[in-house]
Amino acid sequence: MEASAASLIATKCLLGLATDAERERLAAHTRSEALKVAKWCVKNGRLAPADVEDVAQDATIRAMSHVSSWRRQPKDRATSWNTYLNAITLHVVADYGRRSVREQKLLNELAGEIDNEYY
Fold it and tell me: Which of 37, 71, 94, 101 shows the smallest number of beta carbons within 10 Å?
């Protein structure tokens, strides 16, 4: 699907005029685009390969459940659906990065506690 077609269907969703088939088409397109962004993030060292599917799924859910906030921007800052989705996906990637750092810190602390107990 072209970006302009995705934006048109997203607009129809926003107005409550989209059919179920159109919503499904937009969701499939959204997932596909989110996967592309997530894979780009892996290539650039911003995301672990194991998280690609999860990021794409989370970004798709966030985008589809927040269609109403897509066009709540000033006219001079209006964006396409793909631009909106890319921003959401990058935010999800950042969330995963923060989560990974927290998990690694906890694992390091636990490993230190175990080392101190047995040595």
Answer: 101
| Amino acid code (one letter) for 39 | K
Instruction: Domain count for the chain, please give it.
Output: 1
Q: What CATH number does residue 61 fall under?
A: 1.10.1740.10
Q: What is the pLDDT of residues 51-87, one digit of tens each?
A: 999 999 999 999 999 998 887 666 666 678 999 999 9
CA distance 117 to 112: 9
Residue 89 and residue 118: Cα distance in Å, rounded? Answer: 43
Q: Find the length of the chain.
A: 119
Rounded to two decimals, the pTM is 0.79
Half-sphere exposure of 42 (CA within 13 A, CB side): 15
User: Rounded to whole angstroms, how far apart are CA atoms 38 and 90?
Assistant: 8
Contact 46, 89 (CB under 8 A): no
Residue 4: C-alpha distances to residues 7, 26, 87, 113 (Å): 5, 12, 17, 55
Which residue in the block uniquely carries the two structure tokens 């966030």?
62
